[in-house]
Amino acid sequence: MSKAASRKSGEVRKLKAGEESGKEKIRPGSGVEDCRVDEELSRYRVQLEALIGERTRELEIANRRLETEIEERRQAEIVQSALYQITKKANQAQDMEALYGALHGIISGLLFAQNFYIALADADGETISFPYFVDEFDAPPGPQRLSRGLTEYVLRGGQPLLASDQQIRQMASEGLIDLIGSPSSEWLGVPLKWGERTFGVLVVQSYQEDFHYSERDRELLIFVSQHIADALWRKQAESDLMASEHKFRSLFEESLDVIFISDRSGNLVDINQAGLKMFGYASRDEILKKNRAANIFENPGAGHNLVRTLLQDGHVKDYEINFLKRDGSPVCALVTAQMDRDASGRVTAIHGIMRDVTERKLLEERFIQAQKMESIGLLAGGIAHDFNNILGGILGYASWLKTNIDRDHPFFRPVDTIEKSANRAAELTAQLLAFARGGKYDIRPSSLNSVISESLKILAGTLDKSIVIETFLDNALPTVEIDVGQIQQVLMNLCVNARDAMPDGGRLTIQSSMARLCEDDVRRQPEGKPGWFAVLAVCDTGVGMGDSIKKRIFEPFFTTKVKGKGTGLGLSMVYGVVKNHGGFVNVYSEVGRGTTFKVYLPLSGKPEVVENTCDSMLAGGHETILVIDDEEAIRDLAADILGSYGYRVHLAADGAEGVTLFAREADGIDMVLLDMVMPRLGGRETFLQLQQIDPKVRVLFSTGYSQNETVNEILALGVRGFIQKPYQVSSLLAKVRDILDAKP
Question: Does 443 have pLDDT greater than 80?
């Protein structure tokens, strides 16, 4: 029972008690008694009315308090529901735009939010963006540098702001803000915070003059904004994480380099598409089933060393190692990787990248080989040049003496021996010159099949009967521009090597065909250029070669033959001649399974030029010839040979002296025999000066060595011919006669 009801019950009991007491004192029928009763009744009535009034007021207060409590509970439920909806929408929203729209709807259920926007500052605090902006008058602004508007005022201060139009103008007049956008009658902004950092502002505003936000609205928005800030921060972090994961996965899958993750033992856990391509697998599951390191490393011990190095150093950079592809072939890769560790420092995984350098290693080896060959070639060419000058005197005089003595002369045999020895030495220097790329001077469109056929006539009598020769020639093969003699020597050398590789007999196969070299082939074969090539293939079924020998077979003086069975110049000559013709050589060989040499020569397609093989008769003349050579022995030899055949000869020790003499005797000089390599004034410069004196000058170039490009350039300038040192009497007389007898 309540206190009011208790008091009321007590008062009623007192009244009843008074009545009973009065009854005892007042005698019935007395007038005085009637007056006193009326007075008592009136007094009781007043007291009762006062008591009822008091009780009524108490009930009204209780009702109002109850209504307030009900309203507060209803508002609390609304706020609680709003907070729940914020959390729910943050979890369900597919993207930030959907979340912003959901938040606008939730705020609109709490207070007037027809005009609503969210502003966010970037990480460095220099720019601000408006990812969600709904307004009756203003269009959504784009990202911009921080200015001095109301939004930035809240952002910088980190405190909420409720301001009327008059207050906003007052702040502007005091220089606290700049007026931006349409003027609003009420503006309410609250900061969005994560910890102590203010990263954004949530704003509602009204343009209605008769509407005002209450302090309750302000407190409510502040309260709700804390949960909104948490939801936005977490959702943005989640969105950033998803974007980062997507970006990482895109980089992971689209990288041209192999990206991998393995466990601490080196077993693959994940690998990208480039890794599948490098290892030759169709799917990630397939390669991950190869879960033991020994299955992907060519040498399991090398794999263990890699993992051991990682464990010791924590990382490796450009660690070179060979792996095994799916088909069992090796692939060379550079590995850059590091260890992943947990909080306790324990290694949990290895991640890194691999780069396939198999092709690069091959190109590096070829480049190093080419540089080595180039250096050796320069050395060999220099030696051959000087040696040819020495041989020029020996062979020339021996040849000249033989033409002047009878076979029964006592000196004929010694002279003949000298000539043969000099010729043998000349052949060796010719091979050195071919390797040094100093030959290829008698160039004409020729049939490669004809070269093969002519060479086989010689080979048939030199090869053992236990070797079976087979030919497969492409009859539709176009011509190639070659020095026939040198290409014949290439084929002869390859066939002789094949013979020596088959001491117990076997099969020698010679093929001709066409092949087209594309850009990818050029990257693997830098000596070649894109286009069509004639291919000369020489295959044997001999002992074959290992990789260590294949790397050195083109080096001069390198040979696997016993002493006295080879000079080691045969394949080096092949290399030099073919390269000088714009081609290249590929070698395929396995120990015990034979060897195949493929010679690639650029196709010409021009009509074949057949050489006149009739020997010219030794003939002299009465013309005047100027010999310009820095070697005294060569000058004297030329003077003796030409003089003995009726020619008048002038001698010059170098180019400058020769130009002076020619200028003085130009009308009386019919031809110039000019050395190509001389001090002071070289052969090319000498020829150009002679040509200035007499544009029709007839010049025969001679040299013991020269780069082909220089020779071709000089021949293109108008030189009539070229003769290789050391030359014999017949060769010199024939060349001189051809030039003198040729039409201008």
Answer: no
> Each residue of 525-560: pLDDT tens digit?
545 566 889 999 999 998 888 776 777 677 655 555
Q: Is residue 533 part of a domain?
A: yes
Helix (H, G, I), strand (E, B) or coil at 344: coil
Confidence of residue 440 (pLDDT cuts 50, 70, 90): very low
In the numeric block, the tokens 């002493």 are attached to 563
Shared domain for 589 and 633, answered yes or no, is: no
Domain containing residue 207: CATH number: 3.30.450.40
Q: What is the pTM (predicted TM-score) of this model? A: 0.40
Q: Can you tell me whether residue 489 is helix, strand or coil? A: helix
The Cα–Cα gap between 322 and 324 comes to 7
Judged by DSSP in three states, 4 sits in helix
CB atoms within 10 A of CB 493: 21
pLDDT band at 718 (very low <50, low <70, confident <90, very high): confident
| 464 lies in the same domain as 509 | yes
Domain end among 239, 271, 294? 239
Provide the token pair at 219. Answer: 């407190």
Helix axis angle, 358-402 to 412-435, nearest 10°: 160
Q: Kindly give the residue spans of alpha helices, DSSP state H, lying in 501-562.
A: 519-524, 547-550
Burial of 333 (0-12, 13-18, 19+ CB in 10 A): buried
Q: What is the mean pLDDT of residues 716-740?
A: 82
Residues 98 and 52 in one domain: no
Where do we find the tokens 């309203």?
A: 71
649-669 pLDDT per residue, tens: 999 999 999 999 999 887 889
Provide the residue count of the chain: 744
Q: Which domain holds residue 264?
A: 255-356
∠ CA 288-294-298 to the nearest 5 degrees? Answer: 110
pLDDT above 70 covers what percent of the chain? 79
Let me know whether 231 and 102 are in one domain. Answer: yes
Query: Quick one: 208 and 293 in the same domain?
Result: no
Round to whole Å and give the CA distance between 648 and 622: 7
The answer to whether residue 413 sits within a structural domain is no
- What percent of the chain has a predicted confidence (pLDDT) above 90? 14
Q: Are 391 and 728 in contact (CB under 8 A)?
A: no
Q: How far apart are CA 42 and CA 452, in angstroms?
A: 155
> Phi and psi of 537, rounded to 5°?
-110, 130
In this structure, the strands spanning 624-628 and 648-652 are parallel
